[in-house]
Design brief:
The chain is mainly alpha-helical. 82% of the residues lie in helices and 0% in strands. It has eleven helices and no strands. It is elongated, with a radius of gyration of 21 Å. The N and C termini lie far apart (72 Å).
Length: 223
């Protein structure tokens, strides 16, 4: 009884749109897109069914917004981290500073245990039963981030072959994604000893040194 009263109080303090997003995310994680009905989502959010169409236009759009409320802030944080370094250095930063700031933000935004767990469930569901627009992640998340990093690298190294910059950025992102995946596996394993050995801070510092050296060698080789 107390739990229900607490949930009702939380719901009353949130907007209808926020409650729908929360309930939809929970049900999409647990039941998948097909299994989570609009009726169940509305009931869980303590809203009427019509509110889904009013705020989102339908179940598909609601599903996309559940993803966007995770992905857009992550994208914006990464781009902001790049712009901050560029602004503070008057567009003449050290390469290590660009990579370190980007890596810290990239990894930090993905290792919040609770959020990462929900995202993992959503990703697993989406991988099996795809319902997101094919180009949504590419256009709205990846390309703006890659573009910001490309711009920063070109400003830092004007002699860098522009046609190769995207490969450098994808290589860096690949290392960071792998770090996040390993951290997630260790979190779920419950092995404290192994998790302590695999320090995110130390791995990020390695990635910064490794990537910076590789980029400089790549530039030198191209001259």
């Amino acid at each position: 009884m107390e739990i229900n009263e607490e949930k009702n109080e939380i719901n009353n303090n949130k907007s209808v749109k926020g409650r729908l997003l929360d309930s939809a995310e929970e049900l999409f994680c647990e039941d998948g897109f097909e299994g989570a009905s609009i009726r169940d989502i509305a009931a869980s959010a303590d809203c009427n069914i019509a509110s889904v169409n009013y705020y989102f236009g339908g179940k598909q759009q609601l599903y996309e917004e559940v993803w966007r409320r995770h992905l857009i802030p992550m994208r914006d944080m990464r781009i902001a981290s790049i712009e901050k370094v560029m602004n503070q250095s008057e567009n003449k930063p050290q390469l290590e500073d660009i990579i370190k700031s980007f890596a810290d933000t990239f990894v930090g935004s993905m290792i919040d245990t609770e959020k990462t767990s929900r995202m993992s469930k959503l990703m697993a569901r989406e991988y099996i039963d795809k319902h997101l627009p094919a180009d949504m992640f590419l256009k709205e998340i990846m390309m703006p981030t890659v573009s910001a990093m490309q711009k920063a690298l070109m400003q830092t190294f004007p002699d860098l072959d522009e046609s190769k910059v995207s490969f450098i950025v994808f290589s860096l992102i690949g290392q960071l994604v792998h770090l996040v995946h390993v951290r997630m596996m260790l979190e779920h394993s419950g092995d404290e000893t192994t998790r302590e050995l695999f320090s995110s801070v130390e791995v990020i510092n390695h990635i910064v040194k490794f990537s910076s050296a590789g980029i400089r060698a790549y530039i030198k080789e191209g001259k």
